[in-house]
Amino acid sequence: MAPITTPHYDIPTHCKAGVVVNEGPDFRVQIETVPVPEPGPDDILIRLNATGICSSDLHLMKGDLGAPPMSTFGVRSPGHEGAGVVVKLGANVKNFRLGDRAGIKPLLDTCGGCGLCWGDKETYCPQATHTGLMATGTYQQYIVSPARYATPIPDGISDVVAAPIMCSASTMYRSLIESNLKAGDWAVFPGGGGGVGIQGVQLAKGMGIRPIVVDTGADKRKISMEMGAEAFVDFLETPNAAQAVIQLADGVGAHGVFVTAPAAYKTALSYIGDRIGAVLMCIGLAPAGTMMIGDDPDRFIFKNLTVKGTLVGSRRDAAAALDFARRGILKQIAEVYPIDRLPDAVEKLKKGQVAGRIVVDFNLEGTNGS
């Protein structure tokens, strides 16, 4: 039997990071060289190969969610969708080895001791540490994580696929599970051509649920249909998008509506039609105080209608979403940029020009993406 060899990693003193400048409505991101952090006794140091760029990052850099700004915690690099390799272990770490693959999620840690952590609501832990807000996020290549909360990434899943799973796919998995939709049900994804919604489309298809995407543009139509949508309704080209959706959904209406694009909250209930027992799932974060959902309470009563919100995925949700990728159900939905073009990626997302996701590859040199 061949001896087990422990890999050795030359860890630099500094690394590249995307940092926010002029935090607030007029923020921008620039690339800087920053010190590589040192893991504590219960931590691992991860060299990230990839990070996803999420709309929540924009909210944190703008500071428009009503939470304390990043600067309150001394954080300059946002990001919460990281995939990489463990290159250094704290003295007490037992669940990771050097060379293991690991992922960073929207929560870097929770208290582990409250009732929420003991159940299936750990992501609502009041003592949770939010990655990219309260602790340095995945726009920085070398990042420290508590070993107990990092997510092992199985072989056979590329970092470009794994990184967005840490947030977008695990978030959608949680929402689909809590919706209680079953195989054969119709699920509508307003804004489904974006980075979170398109993961929901793939997962729904994998669960036997029938996805309809409401969005606009040829790129978003293309990716939606390629990733499993049964229909794409372009809300700019269709005179009555809600009626078109209702006709597609057996002429009755959606069993579930999964809102990932905040602008879609205004019309989300219209896709329900006459469906009894439907559910509207609130997923996409809007700037605080800008969106409201409501209707005559009689409609909720007579149609047994539910409105429900879900936050991000738990450790269990991330593992389940990764398994969908391992089985080939979750595919690459990302345009890949080198680290030096991370600021360009953020600007493109700000303008709403991204179909699917943008993933930054820390190992990709130059200014060209794919």
UniProtKB/TrEMBL annotation:
A GO CC term assigned to this protein in UniProt? cytoplasm
Annotated Enoyl reductase (ER) domain ranges read 24-360
PROSITE patterns associated with the record: ADH_ZINC
What are the UniProt keywords, alphabetically? Metal-binding, NAD, Oxidoreductase, Zinc
Q: Name one GO molecular function term.
A: zinc ion binding
InterPro entries named in the record:
ADH-like_C, ADH-like_N, ADH_Zn_CS, ER, GroES-like_sf, NAD(P)-bd_dom_sf
Pfam families assigned: ADH_N, ADH_zinc_N
As cofactor, the record names: Zn(2+)
Which family does the record claim for this protein? Belongs to the zinc-containing alcohol dehydrogenase family.
Q: What is this protein called?
A: Alcohol dehydrogenase
Instruction: Please tell me the species this chain comes from.
Output: Aspergillus sclerotialis
